[in-house]
Design brief:
alpha/beta; eight-stranded mixed β-sheet; 8 helices; disordered C terminus
Length: about 230
């Protein structure tokens, strides 16, 4: 099911193209444009597919995070929404061992880039003071398969999401939602369906009234209406 909504220009962070292609297609809907990082690429792609644009990004560099954000703004002619997507199921297949070299790569993939880019996004949002919706989405439908480094990174991502949500207090142009897709809480069959729901969440907040920090920092069940939340999550 796709939502027929007004055009949104969306920046996707966390899972790269082509691995995140199906999720990005869900974000596209019928009118939107999506910008994301391209994995294992040293060059920029004009368009990976219709209205899905990509760029290279050195995730271990704060300077590269700034450049990546500028590229996204330029290509999309502005950004209406940012989606931070942590796919623990995918990452647990990628980071299996706990060798020191893999831990370093894991940090550069799952922790550092989120810290760098959230800082850049807040800075740019304060300069522009235009409505911006930011979503943090976790997919962890096979929790038992999580590796140790993914569990640690997931905890860091979750805490970063909750702290970021507190920014709505002093920024009336910012809207935030947090969501988890868990095997025990929803029945998404494909990543495109999860992306489709994420798009509906973005649009539901686009014209909403100012949020409280409690509303913004509450975890929602992916697939449900925002605000229904999880009774066992903060």
């Amino acid at each position: 099911m796709l939502y027929n909504l007004l055009m949104s220009k969306i920046l996707l962070i966390g899972k790269d193209i082509p691995e995140a292609y199906d999720f990005a297609k869900g974000l596209l809907g019928s009118e939107n444009a999506v910008f994301a990082a391209e994995s294992d690429s040293s060059t920029d792609s004009d368009s990976y597919s219709d209205k899905i644009y990509t760029s290279s990004w050195n995730k271990s560099s704060a300077i590269s995070a700034h450049s990546f954000l500028i590229k996204a703004e330029t290509k999309l002619d502005g950004i209406d929404a940012v989606v931070f997507y942590f796919d623990a199921d995918h990452l647990s297949k990628k980071f299996i061992d706990n060798r020191s070299d893999e831990i370093s790569t894991a940090i550069d993939t799952m922790i550092s880039p989120f810290l760098y880019i959230t800082d850049e996004i807040l800075r740019r949002a304060e300069q522009k003071r235009e409505k911006l919706v930011v979503g943090f989405v976790i997919k962890n439908q096979i929790e038992a398969a999580n590796t140790k480094i993914v569990d640690v990174s997931l905890a860091a991502f979750s805490r970063l999401a909750e702290k970021f949500a507190e920014n709505v207090i002093e920024r009336d142009y910012l809207r935030v939602f947090l969501a988890k897709s868990l095997v025990s809480s929803d029945s998404f069959g494909t990543e495109q369906q999860l992306g489709d729901w994420t798009l509906s969440a973005i649009q539901s907040l686009a014209d909403s009234k100012k949020q409280s920090a409690k509303q913004a920092a509450s975890w929602n069940k992916a697939g449900a209406k925002l605000g229904s939340g999880f009774p066992f999550f903060k």
